[in-house]
Amino acid sequence: MKKRIMRFLMLNIFLISLLLSLCGCSDYGQLTKASKNLSAYNLDVKIDDINMQLLCNQEVDFINNYSVLLDKVCFNMYAAAYREDAEIVPYTSANQGKVFPNGVNFGGIEIKTVLISGQDADYKIVGQDNNALEVKFGKSLEPHDSVSISINYVVKLAECTHRLGYFENSINLGNFFPILAIYKQGEFIIDPYYSTGDPFYSDIANFNVKIEYPEIYTLATTGKVTKEAINGNSKIAECNALAVRDFAIFLTKNSCVFNKIVDKTQISYVGYEDDVNFQECLDAACKALTFFNKTFGKYPYSALTIVKAPFVHGGMEYPNLVIISDSLTEEIDIVKVIVHEIAHQWWYGLVGNNEIDEAWLDEGLAEYSTALFFKEHMEYGLSYQEIVNQATAMYSLYADIVNTVQGNIKTSMKLKVNEYNSEYEYSYMVYVKGVIMFDNLKEVIGEKRLLACFKKYFNTYKYKIATTDDLIMTFKKTSGYDIEGFFDSWLSGQAIVGNIS
Questions:
Q1: Neighbouring-strand partners of residue 106
Q2: Where are the domains of the chain?
Q3: Spatial CA neighbour of 264 closest among 28, 16, 24
Q4: Residues 411, 412, 413, 419, CA torsion sign
């Protein structure tokens, strides 16, 4: 009897250990809790690299987590911005040559069928630039009730170096699928895919994704691959991601993968076969995860992947996944981008915000988080104070030149991304000024209180969507300082930076 009990206990210990190893994360219970009562996406994606298109079936189990009756839902279709007749395109005229090195060409998305609970649905294409899909339920959906929406569609890929497209040995699949729009103040938020910033706004959801792709590619995705199979010259991967804000897929040829486990998260760097700095890139990612875990709060996911690929900008963030442009050559620039994009796993990924209306709320925090990282990691030869001094000097010079030449600089940090005069102005007001503002706040309340504010803000709003008011109130209560006026002067553009407001 004693042996039987011991065998039973040992079996349970083994099963618990196996579960923990499969989860790969000490916060799996927290993640499971966060994933309850969320809308869920079941995606079946076949990548046709001959015709450069995606054949997609998507089933969404939509849960009405709003406090009102809904008779319809909207999906943002960011892929539509790449079509030939799009009036609002996801790149500036200044970047067009970098986006299309081989000449301008087009992609797009074609909706084939939409079903509600297996029956033909009443749907139409809506939005300022035909950038959203509206699906009517046929009857009102009560709060907390759910409905199954099936969408069959084809995404044509443009040959480009943007978030969605293909170029040389890479296929970038960022923002490729119709994603649920957020409902706020009586309407769905379906802003177009603006050329400036990251014009996205989505809630967390659960994802089960099946991807069929040519076996010559290396696959990197949000979440974790749970099952793989071979089908002729193709691979089929099944992926799972709980409580994430988006789902992205990147494929690269002639690549190598290097892995390391940090704080029970597997960090992967997907680089090129001839890379000579893969270890430095992987090390920077590991240091960033360790630092942000300690400084802000634990990253709850079991995987984080960094992918090197052709990309028009320096980098881009997605849940559990960041892209680093292969155009970066200086080690310090590569490290800065890796750290910044990993910081976005906290500010955007876990603590969400409206990136169109309040871009500073993730970009400003991510940029300042990067400065904090270098304060602790002096081995890179870039100090915190040097970053702040550079930001102040650059901002003052930029503002002085623009005021002299144009006289119409917009110094507010809270404009919509499409309201700035240029992409440069957006960058200076959202990124650069964000660093200067938080450094000034550090001088007001002290570094210890400032870090406590960041940590409290993260723990309060992780898995949620925060606003500027949420951050200010959290910082006010945590610091014990009346700082509403401080934030108002900076965000409105009235604060003085050097000699320029």
A1: none
A2: 41-203, 364-492
A3: 24
A4: negative
Distance of CA 249 to the CA centre of its chain: 12
Which one is the CATH code of 41-203: 1.10.357, 3.40.50, 2.30.30, 2.60.40?
2.60.40
> β-strand 183-184 against 187-188: which pairing, if any?
antiparallel
Edge to edge, the sheet with strand 132-141 lists: 122-126, 132-141, 70-76, 179-180
DSSP 258: E
Q: Does domain 364-492 have CATH number 1.10.390.10?
A: yes
User: What pLDDT is recorded for position 498?
Assistant: 61
Element (H, E) at 395: helix 384-405
pLDDT tens-digit readout, 25-70: 446 688 999 999 999 999 999 999 999 999 999 999 999 999 999 9
Token duo for residue 498: 């050097």
pLDDT in tens, 102-121: 999 999 999 999 999 999 99
Pairing of strands 108-116, 119-120: antiparallel
pTM over 0.90: yes
Structure tokens at 264: 């029970």
Positive or negative, the CA dihedral 66, 70, 76, 77 is positive
